[in-house]
Design a protein that fits this description.
The chain is an alpha/beta fold and 242 residues long. It has helices spanning 3-16, 26-38, 56-63, 75-88, 123-136, 151-162, 195-200, 210-213, 219-226; strands at residues 46-50, 67-72, 93-96, 109-115, 137-146, 185-193, 233-240. The relative contact order is 0.14. The model has no long low-confidence stretch (mean pLDDT 93).
Length: 242
């Protein structure tokens, strides 16, 4: 079975179980803030989220005037997206499709982005997906992936995998996307976000005393750690070459 078929099956089951149904969450907030830092006025954007899941963040941009298209390989995920559109009173196009062959014209969108996708695939597949994202973008591509330098996340992931409690399937964090950038794109900027989320992973170490699992209950320790940990997400901004 191909990686894409395996991923489709995994995520269909994931969304059908309702494990991630929520109108908003902490990761969505961090992703939204990162996008708004780069694009503070989204009303001028034509946005494709390529691998959208529920599409919370893009639908938030739609509330602010962006023209949004959500693409995912899971029909169940897009069903949840439409539920969220109804709840929020917004609209967006939804498309079931493959990131390896995006069903759109060249240069169709101002911004093509995703978060939490590339880490589930191998290097050759990552290159192919990035190439497709650049192809359908007229200007900007943004990718967000778990940061390999976020130590508490990596340790918690390994611990949960050992115990059979990791629910997100195959996942390999990255510390840069520089080697994967297509020749027709420039890497403009990479930065980290979500230090608070990195510290949240401490909650899964059930062998630690409570103050260490929840350092926010000890403000001095929390702020000390917050100044030293790396962000949970790596954000990469690409610009398509003319």
């Amino acid at each position: 079975m191909s990686t894409e078929k395996t991923q489709r099956q995994f995520w269909e089951n994931f969304w059908q179980r309702g494990q991630a149904w929520a109108e908003w969450d902490e990761v969505s907030h961090v992703q939204y803030d990162a996008l708004k830092t780069l694009f503070p006025e989204p009303d001028s954007l034509q946005v494709l989220e390529a691998g959208s899941g529920m599409g919370r963040v893009s639908l938030r941009l739609a509330k602010e005037g962006a023209q949004v298209t959500l693409l995912d390989l899971s029909e169940e995920a897009l069903h949840l997206s439409r539920r969220l559109m109804t709840a929020w009173g917004v609209s967006a196009a939804t498309v079931v499709g493959s990131l390896f062959a995006l069903p759109f014209k060249d240069d169709q969108f101002t911004l093509v982005w995703n978060g939490g996708i590339l880490e589930h695939y191998g290097e050759a597949e990552q290159r192919q997906m990035l190439s497709e994202m650049v192809r359908v973008s007229a200007q900007w591509v943004i990718v967000m992936v778990p940061n390999r330098k976020a130590l508490f996340y990596r340790l918690a992931k390994g611990y949960l995998e050992l115990r059979g409690k990791w629910v997100f399937g195959r996942e390999h964090p990255l510390d840069t996307l520089a080697p994967l950038v297509p020749k027709n794109a420039l890497l403009v900027r990479e930065f980290e976000v979500g230090r608070e989320i990195t510290l949240r992973w401490l909650r899964f170490f059930d062998f630690l005393p409570r103050p260490l699992r929840r350092p926010e209950t000890m403000p001095s320790l929390y702020h000390w750690l917050l100044q030293r940990v790396r962000g949970y997400l790596l954000v990469t901004l690409l610009q398509k070459c003319p």
